[in-house]
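Sorry to interrupt, but I need a hand with the structure work. Can you supply me with one protein entry, sequence and fold together? No commentary is needed, just the two lines. Leave the record below and I will have a look.
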Amino acid sequence: MFDRSKFSYVSENCLSMRKLTHSPSVMLCDHSKQNSCDCGEQEFTIGSVSLRKTIFGFVRNKYSGETEPVSKFTWQNKNSMLVSVMTYGATVLSIQVPNRKVESEDIILGFDTLDDYIEANQYNFNCLLGRVAGATKNSETKQNEFLGLSNVNWIPSVDGVTLVLSYLSSSDDGCPGNLFANVMFHITEDNRFVITYQASVDTKMPVDLSHRLYFNLAGHSAGPIELMKHVFHMNCNKVIREKGSKTDKNNSIGKFADIGSTNNDLRVPQLVIVALSKIGPIDYSPYFSINSYDQQLAKQFVGQFIHRQSGRAMEIYTDQKCVTFSACDNFPGAHLVCKMDLESITVPSMYKENLNKTRNQRTSSSSISKQVISKMLGEVLDKVEKDDTVPKINGKGSSKYRKNSGFYIQCQNYPNAMHHGSDILLNPSDFYAKQIEYKFGLCGA
C-alpha cells in the first residue's frame, strides 16, 4: 500500500473507490466529512481568496458505466483574478486577469462545454498529462502509451481554498502497476496560480506529470496577430530536440546542444514573430533544458511573456528540468511566418527587456525598426485573411483557433529522461513531488 504520510492530502473517497483492484468506481458523497460533499454548489473563503464549486457537466464512468458529475471549481481574489478548473482530466478551464485598464479577459484557449473538451482530446487542451508527459525513445508522440490521466474524472476535495484532485490509476489502465496521484491547485492574493503534483506507486514505473496550458495574453480569441506581438524570453541554455521524430530515424530524442548563437536561443527577449522568423516553420515542439542558475532556489525561473498592448505579463517558475514551447504549431492551418535571415536584426527598444534588471525596464535602441515589424505583421494578417477556408478549432464563444492563435509552455522532466541523466523511474519507496507556478502582473506602458 502507498505511504500516505508523504502526501499533503489523501482523499478517502479516492482510495475507497478502487482498492487497487478493478472494483466499480462511483462518485461518493460523504456528508460526514467537512468539504468532501460532491452533491451541489459550495463556497470557501480564506482572506481575499474565495473558491466556489459548481457542476460543469456529466460523464460516464468507464468502470461502473454510471453517469457521474464533473465539478467545476472557480477561484477569485481581490485583484479580480479568476481561475477555473474541472475534475475531468484535471483541466484548467479559464484564467481571467485584468489588463492595464482593469478589464478582465480570459487568456486561456478552450471550450464552453465538457463534450467539446472530450472531442478535442488530441490537442490536450489545458489538461493533466501523464503518467508520462514527455516523449520516450522510439516514441512518435509526446504522450505516453498508457490510458492518459487526462481522460478520467478525478475525485475532488477541498483543503482551505486549495483544490485537491485525486486519482488511483490501476494496472487495469494498461500500466505496469498502480499509481496514486494528487494534483493540487490554488491561487494567491498576489496573482499566482500554483499547480502541485504528488504521486506514489506500488511497482517501479516511469512518472512525469505536467499540464499543457494554451495562452494568449491578449485574450483567448485575439488570434495570431496579437500572439505575434508578444515579447518573451526563456531561461534555457540547451536545446534537447533538434529534429522531428518523423525524420530522426536513429532516435526520436536528440542530444543536448548549446543554443548560444543559434536560432533556438530564446534567452534574449524578442517578439514572437521575430523568434518564429528565425526558427522557421516546424511541426514539432523543441525541448529546452532549464538553466538552474541558483541551485538553492526551490523553483527556477522558466520564462516571461508580455503583451504590452494590454499590459498583461506572465512569468513561469518550476522545479522541473525541461520545458517545451510552441506557438500552437499543432493546430490546423498553414504556417504564418516563413524563415527569414534576421542575423542583423535585434529586438526594438520599445520591447526589449533587461535580463539583469527589472524585466519591465526598457533598454538601448536596436537596429530593427517599427516599420519592419509592421511589415511582418501585415504579411501575417494578409495570410490569415487569405487562409480563411482552412479547418479551425471551434473554441469558446464564437472564437476560431488555428495555427499561431496562442502558445503553450509545458514544464516536465527531460524527454527520454533516462538517456539524459535524469531517471524518471519511480520506486515504491520513492515519492514524486513537482510544482509549476504562473505569476501574472502588469508591465510598463
